[in-house]
Design a protein that fits this description.
The chain is α+β, with helices and mostly antiparallel strands and 201 residues long. It contains six helices and eight strands. Helix content is 31%, strand content 33%. It has an eight-stranded mixed beta sheet with strand order 1-2-3-4-5-6-8-7, with helices on both faces. Strand 7 and strand 8 form a beta hairpin.
Length: 201
């Protein structure tokens, strides 16, 4: 695989309680364990996946693809770690995907959280840490996200970070094997720059 050993341009981003960085080979065991333990929790919110998607070969292909996409500037994948006294603990992941330049200047935000870490505010902090990178470094104009109508946790994550509801999309994404309606949220540069500054990410 050409370019496997080239550096990944995805940065390391830190907040008071979290660290975001690109996946690495040594993260495989923790990633597999967290995804496997959270399967029933994640299943209603994600495209269908199987045990084969958790094997080392699939993880290696994911890393290689992520590095290629980051170098092309089309997608950026982050693992999310909580800072603890014993070191960093993997708790979930985020993606900036489908980056469009020229007249569009937008991308799509996605994220997932391991079941035992949900509801503690870690994802809200992580999205807040990601936003300066999106607007100030990538210099994009609009970040959009979509979630299932009953997913109140995702709604809270986005609202806490200044996203606004823009609409409703029928049969928007295939989730758990079925085409599902989604609520559409977005944050524009204008809203990002106008939001109150509190000193928090």
């Amino acid at each position: 695989m050409l370019g496997w050993f080239a550096p990944d341009p995805t940065p390391v981003l830190e907040g008071p309680h979290v660290v975001l960085r690109a996946p690495r080979s040594r993260d495989y065991e923790a990633w597999r364990a967290l995804r496997r333990a959270s399967r029933d929790f994640l299943k209603p919110y994600e495209p269908r996946w199987t045990e084969a998607d958790l094997n080392r070969q699939a993880y290696g292909a994911r890393l290689w693809r992520g590095r290629q996409e980051a170098r092309r500037g089309t997608d950026y994948s982050f693992l999310l770690f909580e800072k603890t006294p014993r070191g960093e603990v993997l708790v979930g992941g985020l993606t900036i995907s489908n980056v469009r330049r020229r007249a569009a200047q937008f991308a799509t935000l996605g994220y997932w959280m391991g079941e035992r870490f949900a509801g503690r505010g870690l994802m809200s902090e992580a999205v807040g840490v990601l936003l300066p990178y999106f607007f100030e470094v990538l210099a994009l104009h609009r970040l959009q996200a979509a979630f299932l109508p009953h997913n109140q946790a995702s709604r809270r994550v986005l609202e806490k970070n200044g996203f606004h509801e823009e609409g409703y999309a029928e049969h928007y994404l295939q989730i758990d094997g079925k085409w599902a309606d989604h609520v559409l949220f977005a944050l524009t540069r204008e809203r990002w720059e106008a939001r109150p500054r509190t000193g928090q990410p």
